[in-house]
Amino acid sequence: MRPFEYVSPNSRSQAIGLLGATWGNIEILAGGTDLLTLMKDDVVTPKRLVNIKDIADLRGISFDAQGLRVGALTSLGELADNENVRKNYPALSEALLEAASPQIRNMATIGGNLCQRPRCWYFRNGLGLLPKDENGKELVAGGENRYHAILGNQGAAKFVSPSTVAPILIAYGAKIRLEGHKGKRELPLEKFFVIPKTENDREHDLRPNEIVTELVVPPASDLKAAHYEIRQKEVFDWPLAVAAVTLKLQGTNVQSSKIVLGYAAPVPWPCPEAERALSGKPVNKETAQKAADAALGKATPLSHNAYKVKLAKVAVTRAILKAAGGAA
Amino acid sequence: MPDYAWPDPDHRTLIGKRTTRVDSPVKVSGEAKYTYDVHRPGMLYGKVLRCPYAHAKIVSIDTSAAEKMPGVKAVQIIQGPGSNIHWAGDEIVVVAAVDEDSAEDAIRAIQVKYQQLPHLVSDAEPPSGSAQEQGPLSMDDIGDMLDNQVPTREMVSQIQRYGLTQKPSEDTLKGLKDDGAPDDVLTALRSATVHPEAGNRPPSNYQKAATQTTGDPDKAFSEAEVVSEGLYGIPVITHCCLETHGSISEWTDQDHVFTHISTQNVSGIAGQMAEPLKIPATNIRVHQDNIGGGFGSKFAPDRWGIFTAEISKKADGKPVRYMLERDAELKVAGARPSAYARVKVAAKKDGTVTAWQSNSWGTGGPGGGGMPPIPYVFSIPNQHLEHTAIRNNIGPARAWRAPNHPQAAVLTMCALDDLAAKLNMDPVEFFGKNLNLTRARENTYREELAIAAELMGWKEKWHPRRQNADGIVRGVGLSFHTWGGRGHASDCDLTIHPDGSVELKMGTQDLGTGTRTCILVVAADTLGIPINAIQLLIGDTNYPPSGGSGGSTTIGGVSSSTRRAAVDARDALLAKVAPALNAQPDQLECKNGQVSVKGDSSRTLSWKEACSKLGAMPLTIRGKNPDRSKPPDLTNSGVGGVQMAEVEVDSDTGIVKVKKMVAVQDCGLIIDLKTAESQCYGALIMGISYSLFEEKVMDQATGRMLNADMQFYRLAGLSDIPELIVHMMTGKGYDERGVIGLGEPPVISPGAAISNAVANAIGVRVPFLPLTPDRVLAALEQKGRA
Fold this sequence. Notes:
The complex is a heterodimer. Chain A has 13 helices and 12 strands. Chain A is α+β, with helices and mostly antiparallel strands. In chain A, helix 2 (35-40) links the parallel strand 2 and strand 3. The radius of gyration of chain A is 19 Å and the shape is globular. The longest helix of chain B is centred in the C-terminal third of the chain and has 24 residues, at 554-577.
């Protein structure tokens, strides 16, 4: 086993003090459901693990007129089963229940879910986040890319963002709160995800010396929402497409909407084109399909994943119809 | 002459009934111990350095740093400098250390320099004209064949058929022998024809493996009323044993080895370890209680079986454990060869099939591999077959449950189903019409087809292929299969003690199929005592040798020798008991735990009382099956089965769900109906898994397997398994054939049946398994364009 230092602070400031200025040597341990696997497979090789599970004020769920606040260490299972979440954010609860098996849901944290590393099989085989062979040739574009990105894939990053929960959180307008050396900051969750340009970048805007502290989700009582996943297997399978939709209706027509794709791009992929297409329209199969076509209008599939464009369209169509209360 | 014949239905107490497997409690409670659970005192842990390249030559190896590391007890080079490596993940160096972490650290400290060589990991259709006739073999070819674990029989046949490019020197032969070349291969090399002029031919990845013509296919095609052409295929999948391969070996003294190994072949392992370890097979004890899956991939000790013993010797004989890591298991410890074909079939308008033509290809890794038995089950009168074997760097193939038959079923039954669609005939009618081409099993198939159709509700569910698939659509499909299944050699010792206790020893293994239960059913039924009155000991070379569990040979083998031993033991006991009951031995019977005079219940002894008449010494009888050159008596060969599948396809997403499967199967006399049905249920589940999910994905650029894990090497889960209906053919016409193996047959048809059901549902053939959304959508799109 590669030796590493294990530190277990019990306050945010202690934890932040134990983090470093660059990625690679230090990793943050929360639920560990992803990190420990990556370490066992020698994909990441930290010199220090900072266990944040003993920091009490990173836990807890509260709900009031300002909306939902979720501590970063809240487990997926606890959040899915929370009465306020089930009642006020049912699509989030559903996404959480579909995200993993019960055992994983009880260990994995919501902060960790958003920070988990890509499932790209080149990355998981140790060939890098932006996989290259020994001569520097990119591997994904001409390789086995059936599960890779169909949007936002023009750079070297061709993996898909692995969180199935992020799209619906973004659709609900969630914000993420971070804390680091320079203090606290809050940003819209969709801005948290970034497409890495170099092998040393990460897939999110978390700085190496910051931790995720909290998620804030605004009230959603006026929204209709849906999460829709297409998986080949019923359970224990990564999706081929994810779509999350929130709709604000005026009468029978859509006043505004938020449509976000998962498993389509290196980041959760908001679809303003689809939102515009749907704006002012009644929700039916035809308008939903038009919105889906708009969402994928700029898709750039790779050599083996054109089918994912079709799947993403189906996911968007079905999510819109499901949100509006029709059959998916 | 003792009467070994199976009892008729009126005289069976356990045979053919439903008996719950005897090892259920220990398995569900976790008490059952697998090789993976074995921890020996003072045990060391092995770790292996594996080559990251698909094709390379080893330039140098430096293990000095590893040897000095704390906790490291021994380091051994498996393939040294100069060796050619033919697949990523091949074994280079093994380390034994006090714990796994130390062993892994040591592995990382080893420096190996490789010279990378060009690799091929694709099994795509060979470029036109690329297939070479196999020519004379070089010594490199011979070395490669040994490295690639090509079976001895196959090697000898190739050496005899193709000859050599040079005459091997005695030194070369000695070197080969030291590397583990079997004597038969050395003999073949000595007597091979030499063609020195052939030495300069550049090697090709594509070898012409077969060209066969039967009847007059050209004439038959020119006269055909309907011709259907299609492309079909089934990829390389891995065995993915949930208990990985591996062993724990130790030297109990200077020249004795004790090995725990996960194996399908307890009695056959010692003989394969003897030569490399340079000790007699009698000095090697092999033991296994339970196995967590083999599927044809666990017959040999494998490199790890040998090197755990070798490195144990270096480490003062301490036990050394090496169980493969999950990724290694998927990369190197088992692959089923792929098979693809362009097929053309012809028929008369009335559905009579007249001709078959196929150009097939596939890979079994570095060895290439042979042609599946096509056309399968149906002996079409006019045929032309060509097959190209692709030798590539994906790793060696191993026998996978019913070797070559699932491939043959897909290539044949899908092509015939497309022909039926072109004829606009219901497949039940179409296949039924051509059953005369199945010859020996025609009546069985006819009976099975009718039962399967009834159980599936085929008449209500079948429809002509859809022109336009929209939304969720359903369809049904069917397939036929066959297998041999005669019992293997299997010795056992049955001992009756004077206190009435009974012990049965046999060097067989229970693959999870119910072998323990079936042996006990036969012994208990024959002796007229309950199953729990018999102590059964299996899984050890201390017991009489029994064949490997492969080719569906176990049930016929173990039930026959058990029956023989039990009949002889019973008769010997009755001879001792007869005077006490004032009767002749042939007037006595053993039933319900008693020995009685037939028809006179007043003259009865309890089993215990009867056994006390044996005197001081227990009675031991060796059960032994007749030689395979003789016609079988208690076992037999040849079964037929019919399977049907119903699927639901979401034509928007291409996702296929199997909704129902029906398996109708014969296997002669059934020993335990419950475990026989379980074999079929398990096979259907495995079949659904390879039809929808399984595939060994290779990266062409790096030559590595990308999905050597359980997240992307998908196996069917509980929620992917629908209603399964199993119907076993029993009674007159079946029972009197004797006991026939059932391991392979029911896993052959699911791929073809499910593919045919999808074609029926969406109106177009999805050429290749697994039936993943990308393939289904591509087929639908192509149809839309057509």
